Amino acid sequence: MTDRSRTSRTPSVVDRLAAATHGSVPFSVEFSPPRDQAGEDRLWRTVRAFEQMHPAFVSMTYGAGGSTRDRTVRVTGDLADSTTLVPVAHLTAVGHSVAELRSMVGAYADRGIANILVLRGDPPGDPLGPWEKHPDGVEYAEDLVRLVKELGDFHVGVASFPGGHHRSPSVDDDTRFLVSKLRAGADYSITQMFWDVEDYLRLRDRVSAFDPEQGAKPIIPEIMPITSMRSIERAVELSGSELPAAVRSRLAAAAGSGPEEDRAAVRAVGIELATEMGERLIAEGAPGLHFITLNFAKATSEVVANLGLARPAPAMTGSATGVESA
After folding, report:
1. Inter-CA distances, 118 with 41, 238, 256, Å
2. Would you give the DSSP letter of residue 32?
3. Could you give the CA distance from residue 47 to residue 306 in angstroms, rounded to a whole number?
4. Distance CA 35, CA 2 (A)
5. Residue-level pLDDT at 319
6. Which end of the chain is more exposed for a tag (fewer CB within 10 A), N or C?
7. Does the predicted model carry a pTM greater than 0.70?
């Protein structure tokens, strides 16, 4: 039996966005389940560093095909139990039966986690390969939204795609799919990483034009501060997106023509790009900024400081703080 009274007391992502001080824009961060003890130690140093900056919420990703399922539940639950942060758990449909999905939602509820980001998910092995429904699973993210909402008082978010999802026939179809997920009960969406703010603004306009009621729900832009060419090339490959020519040119100039990239210069440009995007998004009325951290604190912390988004947190006793080199 799940502890629904505990989850019902948990503030939602929308609550946290609305609670931001007038005139300020909240920020949030994304973590990934660690693969080993060293990674877990690093994650917790990063968590404690961000805890002092008081993000609106933090999210924990979910491995392809449920490869990190148990670790995701445990670590996300530990965030709920051991920090002042509001955790959002990712949940994907790929590779899971309805019974397994119900069990996962119950496991989250048992740890007091009421905020769930619902994703259809990428196929294991090749994220851009064919997507196949589990024989006893669900076909679409909107089906998973309905399933989660039926199971209790959960606050549900979904993914959105400023440039359109690579599986969608067109951006108009992609807009329709997003609106269907919102109509199914999702309260907000978080975008895939993108590099052109105009893509985000066009997405927001399309959703509002298609369904003004659903268009009023927050669309939270996701930003990844770039710290190396290798990491961004891999991220772009996995997401099916593309770097705009102007962005690639700036990064390439910083990387230099030698056999090894100038990582310090690339990182500096990456921080500049993320800051510039954040400034434009804030000016255009984005409801918040969500940062991919790769379980490091320093790069995102610099961007957050540049934008003036960090708020001092109450003093914590017995907590370690630390900042990593990325």
Report:
1. 27, 19, 40
2. -
3. 20
4. 28
5. 35
6. N
7. yes
Task: Tell me the pLDDT tens digit for each residue of 125-166.
Answer: 565 666 677 777 788 899 999 999 999 999 999 999 998 776
Token pair 């994650």: residue: 43
> What's the confidence (pLDDT) of residue 112?
92
Query: Comparing C-alpha atoms, which of 40, 113, 102, 29 is closest to residue 71?
Result: 40
Angle between helices 263-283 and 298-307 (to 10 degrees): 40
Distance of alpha carbon 66 from alpha carbon 89, whole angstroms: 13
Give 210-214's long-range contacts (Cβ < 8 A, gap of 24+): 210/175, 210/176, 210/179, 211/179, 211/182, 211/183, 214/179, 214/182, 214/183
The one-letter code for the residue type at 169 is P
Report the C-alpha gap between 60 and 120 in whole angstroms.
Answer: 16
Alpha-carbon distance 292 to 222, whole Å? Answer: 7
pLDDT of residue 134: 75
Q: Residue 82's closest CA among 74, 70, 94?
A: 74
Mean pLDDT within 207-229: 96
Structure tokens at 162: 């400023």
Residue among 30, 142, 222, 261 flagged as catalytic? 30
**CB–CB of 226/232 below 8 Å?**
yes
pLDDT of residue 20: 79
Q: So what's the pLDDT on residue 133?
A: 75
